[in-house]
Design goal:
The protein has 63 residues and is α+β, with helices and mostly antiparallel strands. The protein is built from 2 helices and 2 strands. It has a two-stranded antiparallel ribbon. The protein starts with a strand and ends with a helix.
């Protein structure tokens, strides 16, 4: 059994939130709950998060 950890950090790399996902799930399903109600101006992420839904959400937030 494997587990994926999605982490949201501040600009200094300190944890703000994290989500644990089953290892065989797509990473993108954990993004919405991770960034819900969090204001930010930039995003650094793995290319796995380069999806139309994530990009649309970032554009709507003016990130």
């Amino acid at each position: 059994m494997t587990t994926k950890i999605l982490a949201l950090t501040d600009a200094l790399g300190k944890f703000v939130r994290f989500n644990l996902l089953p290892g065989k799930r797509y990473d993108t399903i954990g993004i919405a709950p991770l960034i819900k109600d969090v204001a930010f101006r930039g995003l650094i992420a793995d290319k796995a998060f380069d999806t139309e839904a994530v990009i649309a959400d970032m554009n709507a937030r003016k990130v």
